[in-house]
Amino acid sequence: MKLTNMTVCEFNEVLASNSPAPGGGSVAALAGSLGAALTSMVANLTVGREKYKEHEATMQEVLKDACDLKNKLEEAIDRDTETYNKVMEIFKMPKSTDEEKAERSKAIQEGYKASTLVPFEVMELSLKALETTKKAVGSSNPNAASDLGVAALSLKAGIQSAWLNVLINIGSIKDEAFVNDYRKKGEEVLAKALPLADEIYKTIVSSL
Length: 208
Description:
Elements: H1 8-16, H2 24-44, H3 56-90, H4 98-136, H5 145-170, H6 176-207
Helix pairs in contact: 2-3, 2-4, 2-5, 3-4, 4-5, 4-6, 5-6
């Protein structure tokens, strides 16, 4: 059963169990999807209303982008767990001969790389969702301003959580070029995303 098809309580039960997956990677994607969903909600509470007519074009764009990002982040919830499970299966590969050991080692390294790509994608998608949320600040229904603040916090949590998952995976990768590349890319996302999330939050707090 897909994680995204579970009820909240079912998901939390699986999460709380002794199974290592789903874990922090899937939760990071979930946090990001919740943030994007909140931004979408605020847009839906704004578009089509005469009172906010001057911001209609902006909020229509926000609505479209937030919905798209929400869907992509939801998809990553299951994909993160699936890539982790594949790595665990690889560890069961035979290692009786030198050839088997080499094949197993190569597969493990490829598995860790795949497990790095998913949380990094979550970071990128959540940054885009933050940028979309920023467009809504000052242009959306002020009665839902607090929801934009929660969106920013959820997206920030998703980004930092996904970064932890990038770090733990690249720690097991021997390809230095790959490791250095994704460490640099991840730090670049953080440098853009964290100040932006804080800016949105502070702006919302000052408006309440």
